[in-house]
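Journal club prep — side note

Before the paper discussion, L.F. wants everyone to see what a predicted structure for a comparable chain looks like in token form. Sequence:
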Amino acid sequence: MRTPLMPLTPRRILPVAVVAAATALLLTGCEPGALAPSASPTYSEPGALPSGSPTAAPTSEPPTAAPTGTALPTTPPVAGEIACADLLTADQLYEFSPNFAPAADAGALPGAVASIAQAGGTVCAYQHVTAGDRLLVAALQSGGGFSAPAFETSGDLGIAAATDGETAVAVASEYFGVAADAQPVLDQVLGNLG
């Protein structure tokens, strides 16, 4: 014979609610910030216990918004006067690799990139944010008669160069194992300057 279902009463709901709340606390580990954000403890040295109050530096300026659109952060070119955003837009850099950011120091300039810098052209440097790999982009707008190998290697960098009328462009990166690897970047830079 079948037993009839018992109606839910506050007396029967209370134990279920208590068990549900206890389970939620156990699953969160009772850790601060698990259910509501709170300040993280600060440590003064390895092995030290957290201090009693969090140390948050007061800010007097509102935070600045991240760059949007095709403008790159204002990192000056390594050499020359053309804005780096005019050579390679932020969207194009992201397309190359989302892990590259403008860098102020290019280190040694290889091959055709060095030749463009010596002729008064612009060189912009980008670096992988975690691996340290580089992307160098160089352009010379009055480069009539500029000559460089279409592709060469210098250490672990592949260097590709191209000219279009009076404009000479060179790009270098560890990502360029053959000329075809660099061709999309070369085409983008030539198109931006065209």
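L.F.'s comment for the group: The first strand starts at residue 100 and ends at 103. Keep this in mind when we get to the figures.
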